[in-house]
Amino acid sequence: MENKHSHYIPALRFHWLTPFYDSLLKWGMREEFVKSRLIERAHIQPRQRVLDLGCGTGTLVIMIKQSSPEAHVTGLDGDEEVLSIARTKAKQANINIQLDHGLAYELPYPDDSFDVVVSSFVIHHLTSEDKLRAFKEVRRVLRADGWFHILDFGRPVDFLTRTQALVFRMFEQTADNFNGRIPFMLKEAGFDSVAEAKRVTNIFGPIWFYEAHKQKEGSL
Ligand SMILES: C[S@@+](CC[C@H](N)C(=O)[O-])C[C@H]1O[C@@H](n2cnc3c(N)ncnc32)[C@H](O)[C@@H]1O
After folding, report:
1. Which end of the chain is more exposed for a tag (fewer CB within 10 A), N or C?
2. For a pocket test of ligand 1, which of 21, 125, 148 has the largest count of ligand atoms closer than 8 A to its C-beta?
3. Domain 2-213 belongs to what topology?
4. Is the Cα dihedral 90, 91, 97, 99 positive or negative?
5. Does the reported pTM lie above 0.85?
6. Centroid of ligand 1 to alpha carbon of 167 (angstroms)
């Protein structure tokens, strides 16, 4: 599917690097720490329907299912190669999750399919236009009063992160993040309440936890 889209960026930019993805995340991105915080922030309730947008090799979807066994957990990614790693990991962990092939900006789900959508380190892979399309799609598949929790790069706050930002501002996909535009784009996509809830820093830059709410039915 991704071959039709010339700007599709796989997990580590080049397919031949995909086998090294899990090791890099584990040691370079404080993966377990940040993904555990994301899960805490999502407050997933029993039997809620949860989507991990751009689930990659499946670490976050598996962690979600382990921490909320009664939730219905789905992972979606546009790359069959990472999905096959995710399927193997889920099988090894004896975890029952749905793993779907699809694009973030053309979600293969009806309206109101999920109570919570999460996404980690995916948004900086999308062009500006595709970010906005993806945010609108997430809003469409969320139920009213549902939440979208994003973990991804964001605006720098100090000398170190401003220096890191110099590089990432050179690329369209990462510039939106490092220019602090994600909250504005979420608002533009129609979410009624958007926050930069928390920040940590790793070797690549400032990582923000973004939270976006789809308005309750009947509210303006
Ligand atoms: C850096 S990886 C993050 C994977 C995973 N969420 C994690 O935290 O480890 C980015 C993922 O986004 C996926 N991706 C990139 N563009 C996408 C798109 N347009 N639709 C769906 N998935 C996409 C890639 O295939 C890759 O698995």
Report:
1. C
2. 125
3. Rossmann fold (3.40.50)
4. positive
5. yes
6. 21
